[in-house]
Design goal:
The complex is a heterodimer.
Chain A (H helix, E strand, L loop, with lengths): L2 H5 L3 H24 L3 H13 L2 H11 L3 H17 L1
Helix pairs in contact in A: 2-5, 3-4
Chain B lengths: L6 H18 L6 H29 L33 H5 L7 H17 L5 H19 L8 H5 L3 H10 L2 H14 L4 H8 L4 H10 L1 H6 L3 H23 L4 H15 L5 H4 L8 H18 L3 H5 L1 E2 L4 E2 L5
Antiparallel strand pairs in B: 1-2
Helix pairs in contact in B: 1-2, 1-5, 2-4, 4-5, 4-7, 8-9
Classes of the chains: A mainly alpha, B mainly alpha.
């Protein structure tokens, strides 16, 4: 993540944005995980416990390819929940 | 784009050659080794076809081969079959100074995207193979457009219509796109696609940095009314964050999150960057989300209009209206 970018934000917003990113990333991964079949859930557990970096990347590519879009949707949903 | 312009392909070929030599030097070659050799040969062939395809696209139709001529490109020939330079057939001086007509940016973009589409559609290529090839295209495109390869999102570009590509290249300046996004934020109807397209546009992060660095934003955020609002919004967000953190998550989700975060911290050394700056997940996802959140915050503080000069709900943009 581009830390310089964050440095332009006021202090309070900087740490908040970082924490929020953490939560949204988790929510997005959770949503993507729930959409997986039982077989792929097991596969994901195996790969993320003992797989190589390449296997992890391959898993993202093959099964969680829409993560970026999901993250934007989750960010939207979260900000709506919070601000409204 | 010729072979010499795609260093990764040469590297890939070299790697394949080494792999094959290693397998062939074994005393006992197993069935698995034979399969591996066949895979290497196949990849070699695909690389050659891929390069040939791009060269043909850029150079236009080639002369019909004469009977007996080899259909293979020189790189595919064995050393003894390599064409030898013939002094008597050297081109005339006038031919040496002639340059092929320069391709327009649109043509170059189109050729690169066609090549990327072929690679992405090729199910026989493994992920690493695709990444290596796409990396070459990204580097070429980044030189042509004079931007960082990390700003080129080939996956998204391949999904665009010719009109969208043309807009991306000519009219889809980050400022224009930002204007659209700001209007979407103000209307409360953000379309993820608009934002994802924006972040794949060269100069997107700069345009947001410019807003954050503007006097209007820096001073606007310090105003007492905005400070109070900021405090209230932060409290709401903090409440949301603590509530979310209490929700139990499967261990694997935690691990996947930690993997993405730890790779992001590595910056240029991360596997996301090493694998061609290919904007799949991780790095770019975190970065784009950050930009997205910043815009949402700015929208909430009604500072976007002031900082960008974009008149929301009005008749467009006016930099003087601050």
């Amino acid at each position: 993540m581009d830390q310089n970018f964050l440095n332009l934000l006021p202090e309070q917003l900087r740490s908040l944005t970082s924490d929020l990113y953490d939560v949204i990333l988790e929510r997005s991964l959770m949503r993507a995980y729930q959409n997986l079949s039982e077989e792929n859930k097991t596969k994901m557990a195996q790969i993320f416990s003992s797989g190589t970096e390449e296997e992890k990347i391959n898993f993202f590519k093959n099964y969680l390819g829409d993560l970026q879009k999901i993250m934007i949707e989750e960010a939207q949903r979260a900000t709506k929940e919070i601000i409204k | 784009m010729g072979i010499e312009q795609i260093p990764n392909i040469d590297e890939k070929r070299e790697k394949l050659d080494k792999e094959r030599a290693k397998l062939e030097s074994k005393e006992y070659i197993s069935d698995k080794d034979l399969e591996e050799i066949a895979r290497i040969e196949k990849e070699h062939k695909q690389l050659s076809e891929y390069i040939k395809g791009i060269d043909e696209k850029k150079e236009g139709p080639k002369e019909e081969p004469k009977p007996g001529d080899s259909q293979l490109v020189p790189e595919q020939l064995a050393p003894e079959q390599q064409p030898q330079p013939e002094r008597t057939q050297e081109p005339q001086p006038t031919q040496q100074t002639e340059k092929p007509p320069e391709k327009t940016l649109e043509e170059l973009l189109e050729a690169d995207i066609d090549a990327a589409k072929k690679i992405l559609d090729d199910k026989s290529l493994d992920f690493q193979g695709q990444v290596e090839l796409l990396k070459g295209i990204e580097q070429h495109l980044s030189k042509v457009l004079n931007v960082s390869p990390n700003k080129i999102n080939l996956r998204q570009l391949t999904k665009m219509t010719p009109e969208e590509l043309s807009e991306w290249l000519n009219e889809g300046s980050p400022e224009k796109q930002l204007e659209r996004i700001i209007k979407e934020i103000e209307d409360g109807k953000i379309i993820p696609g608009t934002f994802l397209r924006f972040i794949s546009t060269p100069g997107a992060s700069k345009s947001i940095s410019k807003i954050l660095d503007s006097l209007e934003f820096q001073e606007g955020i310090k105003k007492p009314e905005n400070q109070n609002k900021l405090k209230a919004v932060i409290e709401k967000f903090q409440k949301f964050i603590s509530k979310e953190k209490e929700i139990p998550k499967p261990e694997v989700v935690e691990k996947a999150k930690e993997f993405i975060k730890s790779e992001e911290k590595k910056g240029k050394e991360s596997i996301f960057q090493k694998m061609g700056g290919w904007n799949t997940v991780g790095g770019i996802a975190g970065f784009s989300l950050m930009m997205f959140l910043i815009l949402i915050f700015l929208g909430e503080f009604k500072l976007l209009e002031k900082a960008t000069g974009i008149e929301i709900g009005g008749e467009g943009k006016g930099k003087g209206k601050k």
